[in-house]
Each structure stands twice: as structure tokens, then as C-alpha cells.
């Protein structure tokens, strides 16, 4: 019962629980090839509560041994996962392209991003600051009371449940950012794979499982399950052995997990990246000098990947006038010339179409892309409205996942500020400003800081760099926890907590906070950063 | 309508909303002097929703200006609060002693701790690492895509609601750790004062308000309200302008706030420090060589401040045998010689008595302290039970706030480990070990790491040092968020979130992440810590 991809790697249609292939018992799931308009073999099946129990039990069993590994051991493990993924690269790319309908170049890039993330966390582990080492030395002669010896380091929270996203079948999926950061932190991971790309998920899960085995780690360090969000997903989040959750997806899906986690006897942190319309503020000077150019660049960002990005520019805010007219006309023309591209699944395409339908009733149409013929074709759309209408309408602020955007025409700059104050929390906020706009931009910036995790000037929000300074997060409802990021090296912190060691005998001290600094870490000693 | 304390400072019985004294409209509240067995003047009154609205509106108004202050301005502000508190030190100490029944030496020490905390956060601001500055430099020539310039810093979450604790009328109250860390972070603060010490609260609130004025800060930076938890407290937590909550108190009170915050249209973080019984593991070698000495030291920690500490040692776990008998006998004798000391309020004393009553039915009495005659007297109590009974009983794990503790007799070391695995999350876990116990201690330590925020050897948990490495936190139900601490310099992080700046023009960059590092901060540049 196996299917062959590129003649190289066979798929079994099974989940992987602590290293063992297990067939599900529930709903049958087949991936759908949007380009071919055909379902793909093999058939997968959703797991049930016994599979959740088995994966969580194995993860809990693995935790003690896995978290006791050294930073170098976990770094080598992450490197091995990356190498294993590259080893099935051709088959993996073929399968991910078939399952997602995304262009091969994009998936190839995403594979590089995924292995790059794994290696980034390996480097974070080797650098060592993730330990959060702090030492306050004893002051035995202090009066009226001596100070004990106090040391702090960070330890992992425990087994983590990761929910794959549909739109990044590699980088936000089975071995994506959440899995990489949780494994780096020392947390076993149970992934709920996305039904949109089960074959891709199986291939990657096998690469991880092989790395678990060859690295000599306990099998429960990693499992992949398939299942529905409301069923298996909630069972996973409410399992008492799960201690944190990473999620990328819809607002309704994310909030269901947030509520379930909060209602547990022991509530746990949920990092849900949910909903963002990514406002783009175009200031007067920029509009005047390069309105048409900006309109075309905007459409390129809007239609990339059929707009299926958390950071898709779904809102353009500018002062009404000839500059904005030029921008809108150029955008309309560029849109008219942009072909319909496939969306990830028929369900997503239907949901997009109904979102556009809703906007059609509430705003004026500026233009549309070329219509498509297939079931999954994304028929891009651009609308406009005035600021007053926008601010009064909740519907106009709702995310439409796909290539749909809304121009908000403002009477003046003060109204642009009012829009900035009126919107919900966002992953990103973009400003286009010329030198002549700097004063206005400076007055906008403090408002945007309170609304977004990332503020960018002169570009488009759809590129999310994987690095140290990145914040892919932001105030609610962009995420459920604005204190964190799901992209970049800082993501390791979401799965850690601090522990203080008071007068712990030297032979028992973890090496990160041991005397003599054997790992040569940056540590805060008596309040001062030092590598001594 | 003013009352005089030590003839120096008059109390008005009013709340302070954005600098203005306002009389409440609700329930009348008088502090109670447990030593004298008398209520204290003046009468205070609970506020209502209009007061919550006024305080939150003022805090929201103040936020933009307050968060735009420099680190140095906020540091000077915190220093001024400390100086102002010291200026009313004598009157403040007298009032706090009268309201709490705690010894003058303890309150004097707590005043020093409170001003010390304020100055610690001033030093944290001046040191600057709180900014979390990270810079990934642009790579314009990178292929296939250039890398933009990416910078990250931390900004404050917004107005914070702080709930005072009863048991530290200064250090965990109006200008305690939560207020100091939130103000340091750049968050305006609305305090709900504790009914047990309204006069102390008013004096401290005036010291803060004076500092707000003389520092030229917006009046809404600080407000003090009085009110009930379920009424005014919930109104405060669910006000949309409040963006985070700090709380120290009971499990039921904390969980009510956690639930209310999670049910908001925009959920917010709640840092509730709630419940801990602080297990003390006494290993065989230590018991053998100094069982009696440990028993006496244990009782000193147990009865200090009538046991009204979050870190009171409420559980002693050891292997049954002659060593433990010696420990228990010494503890029983020390307890018999320990006088009844007043508890904070009659309500707390009644709650303690009923907790002890419940334990009497479920465990064996080892000994009691001297009985008291007053309404608030704490009649210390020590019980014992076997590990099997303990592990099967939820009631035996419940916190009894006051000088009550329970010895858990284990059959062997493996059963001690089972107890360590079976208990809920704790603020602290203590180990007494001799050199001969090191192997056992090493096997216990990984279990305790998963259960407690602080692990200490050879001491007692009731001292909580204010420093950089301290963790006063821990897994649920010790706190609602184990990723944080409510004591020590790291507490500033709970009120911050990261923001990323991509290609932001140099004139608009915040100084913490500006070119040339004008503040000479430690920053992570391309992954490497540097002060360049």
C-alpha cells in the first residue's frame, strides 16, 4: 500500500508515533494536487485518542533523557535532521509542490529555509546564551543577613504540541520553526500534521525520526499524528503531559486551542499565530514621487503565492488625492495582468471566494486579477473604501486569506493616524515614506509599535527573514502572546523557563552555571555580563 | 477627617486617582491592629466602576508620554519614589506595624527591601540590557535575495494592574516589586490596594504620586484604588486599557483574575503568584548527623512572621526511622516553646484555624505551639502522615497560610522521589543533604527542577533575596506563568514585548538600536553580544 514519488521515496500513509509507523483509524484523508485538480495517493487516516495518549506518553517518558542532553548533542541532532531532509530533497520538493500547488522555486527556497532554521537553532545552542545564566555570588559577611549563592539557568517546559500550517508545508510544518525551537530548547515534540500535505509531512517526519534514532535519543522525542483540530487537536492540547503549544493557522482554530489550554486543570502557554491584515501606510511624498511604482510593487507582494501568507498586505492606507489615484490605477492595471494561481486546497479557495464576496458588498471594487478556471484558482481582488466606513466596520478588518486587499482612503494624515489607532494587533505594519515624509512617519511610528510585531519601511511585509532580530508575532489577535516570536532564533525562549539554584553544592550544579564557566558562556554575574 | 500617625503624617482615607485624592463610594473598610485587637482610623471606602474607568483612562492617556521617557528619566523617578518613601519612613513603619501586627524590625527591614527594589530597577534601567537590543545588519549583496536591516528592541505592554498582597504591606504592595518592575518597563500602574493595610497604602501612594509630579510625568502614570477582588478587581482586569496584571495572593483569587483575563475579547497576560507548600526534603545523612538541629531550624522558619510567607515550609519529606524521629521530636519541642504571634487579620486567622482543623482530621498531630488569647493569634501546628496517604490526598497538599506544616514519612528514598514527582508546582523546593547524600540529592534535583522555581540546599525557603538570579515563581499552581519571576531584576521582562524594525530610517530609530550605539548597550549584533 505504498505510493512512489519521483521513483525514489515511498509513502506508507502512516503516522509516526515514537518511531513506529501507525495507521490511523478515523477519517480518510488524501492530499489534493491543485495544479492537476486531482487527489493524491496514498490515503492517510486521522488518529484517535489512543494515538494522542501513546504519543504523549512516549514524549513524557523521553523528556528526562532528552532534556539531559548537552547543547552540543541537541545541536548535532538538529544538524542531522537538516541533513536528512536534504537527503530526500528531490522527492520532498516534488511531493510538496504536488500537494500545495506552490511553484517549485518557492518550495525549493522553503526547503532551504527549513534546513537553515534547524541549523540556526543548532548555532543558538552552541552559542549558549539561551541558558540565561545568571550568578549572584554569596556575600557571607553581609549584615544583617548574609547573601546565599544564587544562580539561574533556563530549562525546557516539557513536551510541546506543534500544529502545522497549510501554507508553508515545510517551514511552518513538521520540522518547521516551532518544532526546531522546541527541540532546541530540550522539549520532545508531538506534531499534528496538516491534512493539506500529509505526504510531505510523512517524508519530513521520517527524516526527523531517523535523526532521533541515529542520535541515540529516546524514540518519544518526536511523533507525527494526523487528525482534526476540534477532535485530536483538542485532545492533544488538553493532555496533561503537554506543557506548551505552538500553532500557526486561523483565528478560530487558534482561539479554540487557547481556550482549551486555559481551561485545563493546569493551564499552559499557547503560542498561536492567527490573523493579520498587515496594513501598509503610504505617505504623501512617497505617493507623489512614485505612486505608480508602489502600486505595481504592492500587487507583486499581494499576488505572490496566491496571497497565502500571514504577512500578505491586506490593507493600504493613504490620503486621498491624485497620488493615491495613480497608485490605485497602477495597482488595478498590474492586477489585471496577473494570472490566476492555484490556492493550497479547494476549501481554502472557497473560503477566499466567500471572503471576497463579503468585501464586494461592503467596499468598492478597484480591480481584479485574471479569473482562473480550476477549482482552486485565486481570483485576486482589490477594493477601496473611506476611512470612516473602515473604522466603523468589523467586517472590513477581517482577514481574507489570499490575494485580496483593501485601500483605505483618508481625508488627511490625522485620519491615517486614526486608522493606525483603530486597527487590531498585527504581525506587521509597513510605511512607505520619502525624505519629505519623515516628520509624519515619526508621528506614525509610536502608534504602529503598539499594533505590530514588525515595522518595516520601504518594502513589503511578505518576506520574513529568519535571523536574530526578527519578530514574527504581535499584539492580539495577530498572536495569542505578543511576548514572543515564531520566526528567528529568539523563538527558543518560548519553550523555556527560569530556575534558581541557591547554595546548590558545586558537584550538582548544571554546567551552564558551574564555577569556572566550563562552557565559556556569556553570564550575568552580579548584574554584569561577562564570559569569565 | 484625618487621622494622625506618630503625630507626623495625616491620613485622609482616600484613594489616589492620577494624583487626585478621591473618596470611595462603597463598602467601608478599616484596618485592624492585631496587636491591640482594635480597628484603626480613618475609614476607607471601596471604589466603584467609575473609579476604575477614571484610573484606566488616565493610565492610557499617560502611556504614550510615559513610555517615551528615557531609561535615565525612569531610573531617576524610581529613585525619587524610594527617597520619598524613606522621608515618611517613621510614620510608615508605625502604621504598617499597627496594620499588620508584624514586628517593627521586620517592617523596618521590609521598608529597606522595598526601596532597595526600586533602586535595583533604577540600576537595571541604567544598565540597559532590558532593551533586548538585537541588530542583524543588511546584506544588500546576498543572493538570491538581499537581507534588509533588522533591529529589535523591547517596549512596554501598556497600563498594568497590580494587586497588593496582605502579607508584605510594603514589598509586595503599592510600591512593591510588581509596581517597581512595571514602572521600570514604562507601564503606567493602577494598584488595587489591600484592605488589610489601607493606611500604609495611602502613605506609599502619596510618595509615588509626589514623585510623579516632581519628575514631570503625566498624572495617570500611577493610581491607587480600593475595592473587592470580585467587584472592582475584575472590573480592573477586564478594562480594555489594562494590558497586563500582577497579583500576589490566594489560589482562588488568582485564578479568578486569570479566568477573567483569558475571557476578555483581547486576552492579556496575568502573573499570579498563588499557592505553594514549599517541600523540604531531608536526606538520610543530614538527618543522622543533625536531625535535632534541623528540627529546631525548621520551626524557626515555620513560625517566622506567623508563617505568613508564600515560601513557608509547609511540607517535610524524609525516610522514616530514628533520624526522622529525632527531627520530629526536636521540632515538637521547639514548637511547644514558640509563642503565639498575631496574624495579619482576623479573617486570615480564622482561615488558618480551619485549615489546621482540616489537617487534624487527615493527619497525625506531632505538636503545637503555645496557644494565644487574641482573635488573630496563630497557634502553630505540625502534623505527620505517611507518603502513601499523602500522595492519595488532595487535601493534604492544599496550602494552609500560616505556621502549619506536615511531615511526610517515606518508606525509602524511592518513595521520596515519588513524593517529589507527585506534588504540584511550587515556588521553592529545599534539600538538606550531607556529603554522603550527594548521590541521592543528584537524583532528586532533576525532579525538583520540574516542580519549583527555586531549589535551595541547606537553608530554609523563607528568605527571598532580591537580586538578578532570583526566581520567585514556578510551575502552576505556584504561579499562573512559570516563565517569569515576581522578585528580582528579571521581573522587568514580564511587562515587555519585542518589536522588530526593518529598514527603518536612521533618524527614526530608537536610541537603543541606533547606529553607533549611543547608549553603549550590550547588543546582539549578527548573533554576537557586543558593546560596540
TrEMBL record, chains A, B:
Enzyme superclass (EC): oxidoreductase
Domain Aldehyde dehydrogenase residue range list: 25-444
SUPFAM superfamilies: ALDH-like
Pfam families: Aldedh
GO molecular function: 2,5-dioxovalerate dehydrogenase (NADP+) activity
Keyword Oxidoreductase included in the entry's annotation: yes
EC code: 1.2.1.26
Catalyzed chemical reaction(s): 2,5-dioxopentanoate + NADP(+) + H2O = 2-oxoglutarate + NADPH + 2 H(+); 2,5-dioxopentanoate + NAD(+) + H2O = 2-oxoglutarate + NADH + 2 H(+)
Keywords carried by this UniProt record: Oxidoreductase
Name of this protein: 2,5-dioxovalerate dehydrogenase
